[in-house]
Amino acid sequence: MAPTMAIFVLTPFIGLAACVVSHVLISRLSPGLQRVRSILASVGVGLAVVLWLGALFFSGDARRGATVAGWEMIPAWALAYVCLVYCYLLGFYVLGETARRIRLLVELLGAGERGMTLEEILSVYNAQMIVDARIERLLAGGQVVIRDGRFVTGNRLMLYAAKTMVLLKLAFLGVRSESEAV
Amino acid sequence: MADDERHAPNGGVVVSAIVFALLAFTVFLAAQLVLWRLWKPAWQYAVLPGLALLVLVAAMGISRAFAPSTSPFLPSSIFDYGNFVVLYAALVLAYFVTYPAVQADSPSMTIVLLIDRAGPGGLAREELAKALDNQSLVLPRLEDLVAGNLVRLEQGRYVINSSGALLAGVHVRYRRLLKMEKGG
Q1: Which chain A residues are within 8 Å of B90, Cβ to Cβ?
Q2: DSSP state of A92
Q3: Per residue in B157-167, pLDDT tens?
Q4: Nearest-CA distance from B82 to chain A in Å?
Q5: Among A49, A84, A157, B144, fewest CB within 10 Å belongs to which?
């Protein structure tokens, strides 16, 4: 395989790199911008790079001798790029944003070798804070709405995702929830 | 036949890259499903990548064993294999990212399910707080950290280990780079 062909195989990773760099730049240059908008913009930049490389492959000499017509690779690279961006966003960025384990580690990192008792941990990070933060996010996203002072289901997309997760738990673990497994 | 000489007989290489990667990924999922139902390994996060690698090697072996000309679904050139491996790896990584959500209950999803179960009358904030307490939201995650050797419990105090400090440090520095405050 020619070196240029090898570079084109890495197109999804190049798109991911463009997405991460633009995410950092947008977040730093426009700190006031809504997080979802900075994410969408950076994902768009990465996708544009993937499409540009696809067009380059289609039109240039790089594909000479390849077993593809050029444009055929774009869906494959775009799909791989979407998976990699999903990994970056959900596996890294959102993890730092919402994961309880990471938040607990950050608190314990701050405590150093002295560590923290359970009471000390719960004084800085507890169930009420977790529920309040999630409720705010769900209200802002429209997945939950307030009616007569009570929370009711809004946009059902997240509900369907949650039900799918329950089905996956049943399939893989044989239980409907973590608490059931205990 | 050398890569440089071969031409697509049916223009179906995208079929081999996408469909073969999707097929291999489906086999990986099915293998995990069967394995986990029969014997759920204690070191799930170590076994999963091993299983993914095993399926990848098996898929490439099958592809090599059958002549490329017999099916447009099989990769045939190094370029095809490269694209297949990249796509399969991307799918598997995306699954690895999703899998912890299958194992642990997400508070947001639990809240959405609780509200749905409550019906048209919905739920009050106090009812939610009662259903989701420290026992269900914080303690299991602390136990995960201890079990994962990221944190140790010493005389009633939770102390971070070097691996935990490394992981937390990466997130702290990255969020600082993004000019963001603590998450969670």
Answers
A1: 12, 79-81, 83-84, 87
A2: I
A3: 999 999 999 99
A4: 6
A5: A157
